[in-house]
Amino acid sequence: MLVAAAVCPCPPLLVPEVAAGAAPELEPLRAACAEAVAELVAAGPELIVVVGTGPEPDVWTEGGAGSFHRYGVELAVRLPSGGVEGPELAPSLTVGAWLLERAGVALPTHACAVPADAPADRMLGLGTGLAGLADRVGLLVMGDGSACRSLKAPGYLDERAQPYDEAVAAALGAADLAALAALDVTLSAELLAEGRAPWQVLAGAAEGAGLGARLGYQDAPYGVGYFVASWRQEP
Fold first, then answer.
1. For residue 224, what is the enclosing H or E element?
2. Backbone angles phi, psi at 78, to 5 degrees
3. pTM score
C-alpha cells in the first residue's frame, strides 16, 4: 500500500556540480526536494520506488547506477538498495538516485522508467501494481512540467503552458487523483511535459490510500515548470 510520495522535478541542473556557476539559482528548489524526500522517509516506507520517464519501459529491482558524465561531471550515483549496481539508470532516475543518496537513504529501492508517451490507463494500472509491492510503499516521482513557459524555454513560448502547469500544481497540492488521471497525453507531449506519465503512475498508486498533499515549490526557472509536493497519509 502507498503510504507516502515525494514529487520532484528531474533537471540535471538540480545537481550543483552540473549547474556549476548557476548552482545558487536553484538552491530553493534543492531545499524543497530535500524536505520532500525527508518527509517521504519519515513516513516509514519499507520499500521506495523511484518513477521517472525513460526511452524504454524498464524496471530496476536489484540495484542500478547512473552518472552525470554526459554533462562533463565525474559524478556517479546508485540506488540505495544494497544490491548489485545493475544496468544504467535512465537520466530522470539518476537524478532521483542522487536525491536519495544526498539524503542518506538506505532503504530497499526499486526504480521504474516509463515512456513519456505511455497511455494514461497503463500508467494508472502500473501505479496500482507498484503500490502492492509491499505493505508500506513510498514513491519518489520524478518529472518536469511544461517546457514552454518563456521565449528561451526548450519548447519556446506556448500560451497553453502556464494554465497547464497551474492545473498540475493544483492537482499535486491537493492529491487530486482524478485531475492527474485526466491529464491529456497529446497536450502534455506538445508542451514537453514529461512528468505527465509519472504523475499518472502516482495517481494509480494513491487510489484508496487516503493521502493528503502539500505543494512545497512551484516555479518555472529557465522556462520549465518545476513542482515539489509531499503526499502522506492523513493523521
1. none
2. -145, 155
3. 0.96
Instruction: Please give the helix or strand (H or E) that residue 180 lies within, else none.
Output: helix 177-181
> What confidence score (pLDDT) does residue 234 get?
76
Side-chain-side CA neighbours of residue 39 (13 Å): 22
How many domains does the structure of the chain reveal? 1
The residue range of the domain holding 24 is 2-233
**CA angle at residue 162 from 160 to 167, to 5 degrees?**
95
Cell matching residue 138: 513510498
163: left (phi over 0), alpha (psi -120 to 50) or beta: alpha
pLDDT tens digits, 47-72: 999 999 998 888 888 788 999 998 98
Q: Are 136 and 3 in contact (CB under 8 A)?
A: yes
Return the number of other C-beta atoms located less than 10 Å from residue 204's C-beta: 23
Residue 60 burial (C-beta neighbours within 10 Å; 0-12, 13-18, 19+): buried
| CATH code where residue 33 lies | 3.40.830.10
How far apart CA 192 and CA 228 sit, in angstroms, is 18
Looking at the chain, the number of H-run helices and the number of E-run strands are 8, 9
Low-confidence residues in the chain, pLDDT < 50: none
CA angle 193, 194, 197 (to 5 degrees): 110
Counted residue by residue, the chain has a size of 235
114: closest CA among 55, 41, 28?
55
